[in-house]
Amino acid sequence: GTGRLLREEFLQLATIVEQEYELSDPRHNCHSDTIGPYRLTRTLGKGAEGVVKLGINRETGAKKAVKIVQKGNIASMARVDREVEAMVMLNHPAVVSCDEVLESERHMYLVMEYCAGGHLEDYISPTRPMSEAAARFYFSQLVDGLVYCHDKGVCHRDLRVENIMLDNRGNLKITDFGHAGIFQQGWDVFQTMLVGSVSHIAPEQITGTVYSGEKMDVWSAGIILYIMLEGAAPFQAATAEDLLDNIKHGRFERPHRMTHAAAAA
Fold first, then answer.
1. pTM of the model
2. Where in the chain is the domain with CATH 3.30.200.20?
């Protein structure tokens, strides 16, 4: 009746969605490729670097998310190297784990934890934002994961709702460390311009000045919290140029869905 997705509702929905997807996917029982002990079945997602497929261990039946990256693309391979370097440093419940890296003559395969709950963004819309209780639950997990990453000397630098997933118990997982920055404590300084999603980008990136990767992650986490509660990003514009200008000068949509207490926070 509230138009907001409760965590209990999510758990029920996620189970139904996964079961229906498995049954309806015509490729599920078709011939599939293999790498190492894994049979690669349906596609979980696609990105700039390659495709992510569901990998099923032929001996144990364990499910993994397998990112497949074609060799030869220097930019893609650099991101894979950076992602692996960052992920092997991390071991936290709110960070997706990378179990192993396999390769063939033409491809690299990142074998990662499978998040059956899908992307966080799938459960948020302008007409159905999260309840404040659910947002508080997930934001607490996000902050715990970020603090851990920063303590280990890793800043994400591409934190957005598309890179937040949920496991089959409804717990949050930070994914996609392809833009991660690795730093020594006290030397968290970067100058790469416009890394990550434009809607989540921090003002200092737009100006081209040096910035703190940790502070950039904190900014992006705030954007994610706003999206959880409002169902849409705080900075809006008709063009990319106007959007960057709005971010640079702090012109954002005043919240109208969340309670006064949440908006004041």
1. 0.83
2. 9-113
Q: Where in the chain is the domain with CATH 1.10.510.10?
A: 118-264
Helix H, strand E, coil C: the string for the chain is CCCCECHHHHHHHHHHHHHHHHHHCCCCCCCCEEECCEEEEEEEEECCCEEEEEEEECCCCCEEEEEEEECCCHHHHHHHHHHHHHHCCCCCCCECCEEEEEECCCEEEEEEECCCCEEHHHHCECCECECHHHHHHHHHHHHHHHHHHHHCCEECCCCCHHHEEECCCCCEEECCCCCCEECCCCCCCECCCCCCCHHHCCHHHHHCCCECHHHHHHHHHHHHHHHHHHCCCCCCCCCHHHHHHHHHCCCCCCCCCCCHHHHHC
Mean per-residue pLDDT over the chain, rounded: 85
Q: Which residue is catalytic, options 151, 158, 176, 245?
A: 158
Is residue 158 flagged as an active site residue? yes
pLDDT in tens, 127-181: 899 999 999 999 999 999 999 999 999 999 999 999 999 998 999 999 999 889 9
**Fold exhibited by the domain 118-264:** Transferase(Phosphotransferase); domain 1 (1.10.510)
User: What percentage of the chain has pLDDT greater than the value 70?
Assistant: 84
pLDDT per residue over 25-80, tens digit each? 444 444 469 999 999 999 998 876 789 999 999 999 999 999 999 888 787 888 88
CATH 3.40.50.300 applies to domain 9-113: no
| Sheet containing 38-46: order of strands | 33-35, 38-46, 50-57, 63-70, 107-113, 98-103
